[in-house]
Write a structure and sequence with these properties.
With about 210 residues, the chain is mainly alpha-helical. About 55% of the residues lie in helices and about 5% in strands.
């Protein structure tokens, strides 16, 4: 039953979100959902009522009396539940309030997850990256701290887009690198890729 309860709660919140997205007022959404829930309980009550007088004859009259008393008790309880659900109508916006609480809880959990992720990236990932590498740039981007890096990019031999990992403002086309020595000079660099802004597959940092 807990599975159905969880599914019902999620469906209820989803329904309120969809109705809100369509511009349905909160009070009207509550009326609609309350009517559906009361109708569902009323349907269950009708099925329970039909069990009256259905006790197995072989169990005797005392069992039959207890059976019918049980049917009556459950039926009355379901009527009370239907009445309670129906009474939720009238614009109290209980469902909308539940949705707001649910959304706030989700956002709080998301913020907590982001805090944990930032702590992990800052404490475990960033210290293991080397300066002027794509891995370090990705870590800084995840932390929102890559604003001081160059934005020039190009495509490598595999067709992958690579972004310069040097500091912004470093570019000097006249400072040509010794290509075999691995130093970028004043050109752009990402890993083993060194380039200037004149290549056909290059996007200079000024264009970003």
């Amino acid at each position: 039953m807990s599975r159905y309860q969880t599914a019902g709660i999620n469906a209820r919140l989803r329904l309120f979100a969809l109705l809100a997205a369509q511009g349905v007022p909160a009070s009207e959404a509550d009326d609609l959902v309350a009517a559906l829930e009361a109708g569902a309980v009323a349907g269950a009550q009708c099925e329970v009522v039909e069990l009256g007088g259905m006790a197995p004859a072989s169990r005797g009259p005392l069992f039959a009396d207890g059976w019918d008393d049980g049917v009556t008790a459950v039926s009355e309880a379901l009527v009370g539940i239907a009445d309670r659900d129906w009474a939720r109508r009238g614009g109290r916006s209980a469902g909308a309030a539940e949705l707001a609480v649910h959304i706030a809880d989700v956002r709080q959990r998301e913020r907590a997850a982001l805090v944990r992720l930032e702590a992990f990236v800052r404490g475990s990932v960033l210290p293991r990256t080397h300066p002027n590498t794509s891995a370090r740039r990705r870590a800084l981007e995840a932390l929102g701290e890559a604003g001081g890096l160059c934005t020039a990019r190009t495509r490598n031999a595999d067709g992958d887009v690579v972004v310069c990992t040097l500091d912004a403002g470093h570019y000097d086309p006249d400072d040509k690198p010794p290509f075999k020595g691995g130093e970028p000079g004043g050109w752009h660099k990402a890993g083993a890729t060194i380039w200037n802004d004149l290549g056909a597959a290059c996007i200079p940092h000024e264009a970003i």
